[in-house]
């Protein structure tokens, strides 16, 4: 992934040579672009892609919160070690997003603008000690944390990643883990972008993800593959994420 977060952008020349070297080494690059990335960082990515005139760089937009973005990147990296081509792995970024259960425990929702919050919760967040479980993916949701708080979770086998920062993670590790039944719970560091994304300096970010590469592979290969008519890559989904061409539905596929 290219380091383009924040206001201070790295030197363009250095980024161009690093990108060229990565393309020479790997052939193709898949870049996950968080929706929260600022305009300057986004412009920089498109500049690099344009200067290199490269349809071997896929810029894949994602709405996921930071911890889930990191986990998705790991899942995609593992898929690149299989026999799947770059067009299919890029398309897998969209597919696998639906299998990530991502949220956070927050002490306040007044500065949370990435997940819709109702007014009552806004008012409650001024009560000292109140905590909120906020889900961002696959569906947005919010509940005040209490002994009977229930959060809809995955109905398939996952591991749970937990990143606590300035706040106890008891509720996630005990109550939520009891509800979601993850195979394992992993403590991980909080991503740098998380405090801004969630609008809180203290938080516990969590995400349940499929840890098994065999399961991920089967999910991706269960989707119909097509050849991009423009660049020839094998892809899944309705668009080639490398050259942006729309994928026409195969007529035989429509009939069958
Ligand atoms: Zn293409």
From TrEMBL:
<protein>
    <submittedName>
        <fullName>Uncharacterized protein</fullName>
    </submittedName>
</protein>
């Amino acid at each position: 992934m290219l380091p383009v977060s924040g206001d201070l952008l790295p030197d363009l020349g250095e980024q161009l040579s690093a990108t060229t070297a990565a393309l020479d080494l790997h052939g193709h690059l898949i870049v996950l672009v968080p929706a929260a990335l600022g305009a300057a960082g986004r412009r920089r990515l498109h500049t690099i892609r344009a200067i290199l005139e490269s349809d071997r760089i896929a810029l894949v937009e994602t709405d996921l919160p930071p911890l889930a973005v990191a986990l998705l990147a790991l899942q995609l990296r593992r898929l690149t070690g299989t026999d799947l081509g770059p067009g299919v792995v890029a398309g897998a970024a969209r597919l696998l997003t639906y299998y990530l259960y991502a949220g956070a425990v927050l002490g306040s929702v007044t500065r949370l603008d990435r997940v819709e919050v109702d007014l009552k919760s806004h008012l409650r967040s001024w009560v000292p000690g109140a905590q909120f479980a906020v889900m961002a993916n696959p569906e947005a949701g919010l509940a005040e944390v209490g002994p009977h708080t229930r959060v809809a979770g995955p109905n398939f086998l996952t591991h749970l990643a937990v990143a606590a920062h300035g706040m106890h993670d008891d509720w996630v590790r005990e109550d939520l883990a009891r509800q979601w039944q993850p195979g394992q719970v992993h403590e991980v560091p909080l991503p740098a972008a998380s405090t801004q994304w969630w609008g809180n300096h203290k938080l516990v970010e969590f995400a349940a993800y499929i840890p098994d590469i065999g399961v991920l592979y089967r999910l991706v290969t269960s989707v119909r593959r097509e050849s991009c008519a423009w660049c020839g890559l094998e892809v899944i989904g309705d668009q080639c994420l490398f050259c942006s061409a729309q994928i026409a539905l195969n007529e035989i596929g429509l009939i069958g």
